[in-house]
Amino acid sequence: MSTELILTEVREGYRSIQLNRPESLNSFNRALHAALGAALDAAEADKSCRALMLTGTGRGFCAGQDLSDVDIPKDGHPDLAKTIDTNYNPLIRRLRALPMPVIAAVNGVAAGAGANIAFACDIVLAGRSAKFIQAFSKIALVPDSGGTWFLPRVAGSARARALALLGEAVSAEQAEAWGMIWKVYDDASLMAEAHKLAAHLARQPTGALALIKQALDRSETNTLNQQLDLERDLQGQAGRGPDFREGVAAFLEKRPAQFSGAM
Questions:
Q1: Going edge to edge, which strands form the sheet with 169-171?
Q2: pLDDT tens per residue across span 136-147
């Protein structure tokens, strides 16, 4: 069995990053957080990397926090806020801010923080056997890793409350029907479809895609007037980029565009 906590595969234009603790359904301990951070550092430093795919090895995407890795002091009161502030919040912020599209390929259970890490990605694909579970209430905790922010937005307020309070599993097909994820595939074809999508995104004007991500995130708190001004500013930036010129030229010449991803 591999002892590497993260398996990175470098392909043309993109990287696949796999959480690799299959014996614990890829649950997070401190070492896995550090290894994933290093893998994201390497991807962001690689100028040829224009998309990311995040998945898990074995039969699960990620089961959230490895409870055996939580320090329980003698008084029985662990500092879970410190764990979140040190590990999970920086990860969620980073996934949202990466200047490239990020795909989650959910290959089985995505529970607790694992579900919310998937929702933090830009596009979520899932195998038919995948399940999304807000497992926090079952151990007397509150959804973290952005769960209380993502759930109302991807599932709606009524469903978010029920999912958070009941901790019931949502099947991949139900998640797709509710608009929580993008698409469901048969388990056997999930990874091929995820690689196909990552390769497609890596050929797109990824500098402009980064601006789209920024605009969509800001829209969550902006007024309409603020968003109109932001769209104006970002469009001005995009229009000065080489990929806009290439896109227009390709359209007029009736040929496929060859985007550089530069901005």
A1: 60-62, 109-111, 131-133, 169-171
A2: 999 999 999 999
